[in-house]
Design brief:
Elements: E1 2-6, H1 14-23, E2 28-31, H2 39-46, E3 49-52, E4 66-71, E5 74-79, H3 91-99, E6 104-106, E7 113-118, E8 121-126, E9 140-146, E10 152-158
Parallel strand pairs: 1-2, 2-3, 5-6, 6-8
Antiparallel strand pairs: 1-9, 4-5, 7-8, 9-10
């Protein structure tokens, strides 16, 4: 199973189109918020099942602010992150993920890619496809692949 994780596209979907075309078939697209466009457009671009949460710039969206989903054997918490003050660190977010029994927490908002394991929880921010803020300012996304044994493998990729 191949899952594409993106965030903070802010209505600029050119790189999303490019990434979807480049990586080929995906089973699920997860968007960690700030699409600033109809979720139907993201689903059309992805060509597969999508899971999208509302970001702080998705003003009139009716999307959920948070989602907790099961992917293979993993419980995944998906948020944009602004309500957990992720710009100041991920401690509050990790505490919430632990309280919900999540194995993986995915977030956006900072426009900076981040991948770490803390207290047996995978913490993942794919960065931004449109307005990256990390050194070099290269647009990024993440891939989560579930292998034949059901184990998850993660990578952060440049556009």
């Amino acid at each position: 199973m191949k899952i594409l994780i993106v965030s903070d596209t802010h209505r600029r979907n050119e790189n999303l189109y490019e990434v979807v075309e480049r990586i080929g078939k995906i089973d699920v697209l997860i968007h960690c918020g700030d699409t600033e466009c109809p979720s139907e457009l993201i689903e059309e671009i992805a060509g597969c099942h999508t899971i999208i949460v509302r970001g702080n710039n998705d003003f009139f969206s009716m999307l959920d602010k948070e989602r907790v989903v099961n992917i293979s054997k993993y419980k995944v918490m998906i948020v944009h992150g602004h309500t957990y003050n992720v710009s100041l660190g991920v401690d509050m977010l990790v505490d919430e993920a632990m309280s919900r029994g999540a194995n993986i927490v995915m977030y956006g908002h900072t426009h900076r890619p981040h991948l770490e394991v803390r207290d047996d929880i995978v913490i993942l921010n794919p960065g931004s496809l449109s307005y990256p803020r990390q050194e070099g300012r290269i647009p990024t996304y993440a891939i989560m692949e579930i292998d034949d044994e059901g184990e998850a493998h993660f990578s952060i990729c440049n556009v």
